[in-house]
TrEMBL record:
GO terms for molecular function: phosphoribosylglycinamide formyltransferase activity. This is Phosphoribosylglycinamide formyltransferase. The active site is at 109 (proton donor). N(1)-(5-phospho-beta-D-ribosyl)glycinamide binds at residues 12-14. It comes from Pendulispora brunnea. The keyword Transferase applies. The record marks 145 as: Raises pKa of active site His. It comes from the Bacteria. CDD domains: FMT_core_GART. Catalyzes the transfer of a formyl group from 10-formyltetrahydrofolate to 5-phospho-ribosyl-glycinamide (GAR), producing 5-phospho-ribosyl-N-formylglycinamide (FGAR) and tetrahydrofolate.
Amino acid sequence: MLNLGVLISGTGSNLKAVLDAVAEKRLDARVNVVISNVATAPGLEHARAHGVPTLVIDHKAFPNRAAFDGALVESLRAHEVDWVVLAGFMRVITPVLLEAFPLRIVNIHPSLLPAFPGMHAQKQAFDYGVRIAGCTVHLVDAGTDTGPILAQAAVPVLDTDDEPALRTRILAEEHTLLPRVLQWIAEGRVTVVPAEQGGRARVSVTRGEV
């Protein structure tokens, strides 16, 4: 069983997908704590509804990003977290958090990486005129959405789409893909080979039923 800590900043719809998957026994995990850097984040209510402990750690209360991440690490460790999930966490993380959970931080990104990393990926894809968009679950490293890719889901861009419509359809795929990949991790289907000097970490995934 995975002991998860989930970091959020907003609505927490991917958090809800994870919590629902746990409750429905589709995901062999326990969410030990949900932490938000925004006190008014609606996603905190999803955690409370499932009886999951919540914390608010305001990044503005710290002198720098490293100090903020240090507080995150302290709280995650206090709740006996093994894996960290970024579910709409709108902060750039530092080596303090990365080194505390090496290659055990999972992110969901709304594009088919390596295309359109960073902010507003759905708008980037729509404005670029791609015919296929999608989402990616990946491990987090020191780059911006550059970590090893675990799985992706494609979403066709329809002639009738506008950017909000495309965003909504990508989000629906995120809600399916993230719990599925976490279950693969819980089942031991994900093997991570750390980077050698000057190289990149490699991931081997034995995929479950799609």
